[in-house]
Amino acid sequence: MSKIKIGLFGFGVVGQGIYEVVRKAKNANAEIVKICVRDPEKPRKIQADKRLFTTSVEEILDSPNINLVVEVINDPDAAYDIVKRSMLRGIPVVSGSKTMLARHLPELIELQKTRHVALLYDASSCGSIPVIRNLEEYYDNDLLLEVKGILNGSSNYILSRVFDHAEPYADALAQAQALGFAESDPSFDIEGYDSLFKLVIITVHALGTYVAPERIFTYGISTIHDSDIRYAREKGVKIKLVAQVVKVSDEHFTMFVMPEFVTPDKYIYSVDDEYNGVVIRGECYDRQFMFGKGAGSLPTASSILSDIMARLHDYRYEYKKMNYVQKPGYTTDITLKVYVRYKETDIHNILHFDKIREQYIGEESNYVIGDILLSELMDKRSQLSGRDVFLANIPIFFLNRDR
Ligand SMILES: NC(=O)C1=CN([C@@H]2O[C@H](COP(=O)(O)OP(=O)(O)OC[C@H]3O[C@@H](n4cnc5c(N)ncnc54)[C@H](OP(=O)(O)O)[C@@H]3O)[C@@H](O)[C@H]2O)C=CC1
Ligand SMILES: N[C@@H](CC=O)C(=O)O
């Protein structure tokens, strides 16, 4: 590709960051020639030439002058429509919309093949950390065993403020929104869905398999309570929202998103505020750790810029692992050790524990710690949504990993 002429969709937190970094990048040989938004009259932090703005998708897709679409809007359905239409017209796309990608990746991967058109999305998972491209290229072999980490900046920011600075939860959430880390609907962040969508995308590049989001156990931090924080402090651990995909045998892998008690010896223990941290474990190298800003305007834009530059060299994901002859299958038949705090909800009648290890009945709240199948948690997920319930994983080497 010669000069890159960008049609940019979205001029919010990330879009404005992209405008800034593209202007700064002297060697990018790229220029934003059109910006599509919902409301061109909206006041914005960054002043761009008014003539760049449009509300018409067609004005970008029909322009012979535009050879790359960059899509960073906050509406997953509209994003899907824009990305698909661009690709059908043979225009390569860079996207940051993980909700849209996690829902539609199989179709978009197929479109890349049939239409010979690239779709890059490193910014969709972990902001400025180049997780996807590394999994795709460097870890292009059978040795990978696990990708685990903090994939959501907002919930990590909230947990850090609440845990380390004793700030009220609601204030910390409001700050995460004001700083541009949170999604338009912040429940995506705090209920774990943003981490889930990133985990779905990461798993495609880690193990070559797409697992639909609704098949994956997801539990967030919205019901965390002072008693959970006190309990964690007493034990000398921190509570983090952790997403993980783990090979549990040659035949199977598992994945889930859940708050976790993290001990000080773990890399992610020190990952605070909006930072993300990803631990990659493999057969021969044990653990490697990637750390960086996972949200925010310029960090995310830097990742988009990297994808834009990659297009200068015609880079595209090849999804090599999807063609492996032997691939592990997804399982939820795996035993976890969990902490469940509750009050009114009749947890003992809802959850069937294989083994109860500890129980506490208190005036303020109760908790139980026990071994339980992930499939059992998945089946009972809708009954664990009470405001009085909080659940956290206590990491163990999976109890039945060799079954
Ligand atoms: N914020 C972050 O740290 C990160 C965000 N992302 C992802 O990037 C995307 C954008 O996030 P962010 O910048 O924070 O969101 P914002 O809410 O700040 O901005 C969204 C932008 O999308 C525009 N928009 C919405 N719908 C349409 C549409 N149908 N057609 C054209 N433009 C539209 C809005 O237009 P208008 O301004 O006129 O309302 C706005 O400019 C999301 O998918 C998010 O998940 C990914 C990584 C990090
Ligand atoms: N809302 C997301 C933004 C980046 O993906 C987060 O907080 O991590």
Automatic annotation (TrEMBL):
Residues annotated as domain Aspartate/homoserine dehydrogenase NAD-binding: 10-121
Cited SUPFAM superfamilies: Glyceraldehyde-3-phosphate dehydrogenase-like, C-terminal domain, NAD(P)-binding Rossmann-fold domains
Domain of life: Bacteria
PANTHER family: HOMOSERINE DEHYDROGENASE
Entry's family note: Belongs to the homoserine dehydrogenase family.
Keywords: Amino-acid biosynthesis, Methionine biosynthesis, NADP, Oxidoreductase, Threonine biosynthesis
Metabolic or biological pathway: Amino-acid biosynthesis; L-threonine biosynthesis; L-threonine from L-aspartate: step 3/5; Amino-acid biosynthesis; L-methionine biosynthesis via de novo pathway; L-homoserine from L-aspartate: step 3/3
Record carries keyword Cell division: no
Gene Ontology biological process terms, A to Z: methionine biosynthetic process; threonine biosynthetic process
Swiss-Prot/TrEMBL catalytic activity: L-homoserine + NADP(+) = L-aspartate 4-semialdehyde + NADPH + H(+)
MF (Gene Ontology): homoserine dehydrogenase activity; NADP binding
Family matches, as NCBIfam families: PRK06349.1
UniProt protein name: Homoserine dehydrogenase
EC number: 1.1.1.3
Residue ranges of domain Homoserine dehydrogenase catalytic in the record: 130-309
